[in-house]
Amino acid sequence: QVHLVESGGGLVQAGGSLRLSCANSGRTAGNYVMGWFRQAPGKERDIVAAINWSGSSTYYADSVKGRFTISRDNAKNTVALQMNSLKPGDTAFYYCAAASHWAYWGQGTQVTVSA
């Protein structure tokens, strides 16, 4: 099984940075695509970024390109999301997900960006 646990959320001022981390304490996720999603109140859950199993290919939503960076360490079974130049519009609950069709999900972590 894959068991994902997110950490690193919090409150930050606009223009600041946060680094989210997702640890998989279950079966290795070395062969899984992994990604970060976010959901703001009253809105749908949207993908933010994704990374393939080797780390050689990444995807970013247009709204975060140039500001967010996704990375993974398969030896440590972790995936991270470095978020820079944060905006109030980035405020949301952030989730880590893994595997094809996003079969596995973490519980999420809150990110709040104040103006």
Write up this protein.
- The chain has 115 residues and is mainly beta.
- 0% of the residues lie in helices and 50% in strands.
- The strands form 2 sheets. Strands 2, 4, 5, 6, 9, 10 and 11 form a 7-stranded mixed β-sheet that branches. Strands 1-3-8-7 form a 4-stranded antiparallel β-sheet, with no helix packed on it.
- It starts with a strand and ends with a strand.
Q: Mind telling me the C-alpha Rg?
A: 13 Å
Number of strands: 11
| Number of contiguous helices | 0
Strand fraction equals over 45%
Q: Major beta sheet, specifics?
A: 7 strands, mixed
Structural class by helix and strand composition: mainly beta
Distance between the termini: 40 Å
Poorly predicted tracts of residues:
none
List keywords for this structure.
single chain; 115 residues; mainly beta; seven-stranded mixed beta sheet; four-stranded antiparallel beta sheet; 50% strand; globular
SSE layout and pairings?
Blueprint: E1 4-7, E2 10-13, E3 18-24, E4 34-39, E5 46-51, E6 58-60, E7 68-73, E8 78-83, E9 92-98, E10 104-105, E11 109-114
Parallel strand pairs: 2-11
Antiparallel strand pairs: 1-3, 3-8, 4-5, 4-9, 5-6, 7-8, 9-10, 9-11
Short description:
The chain is mainly beta. It is built from no helices and 11 strands.
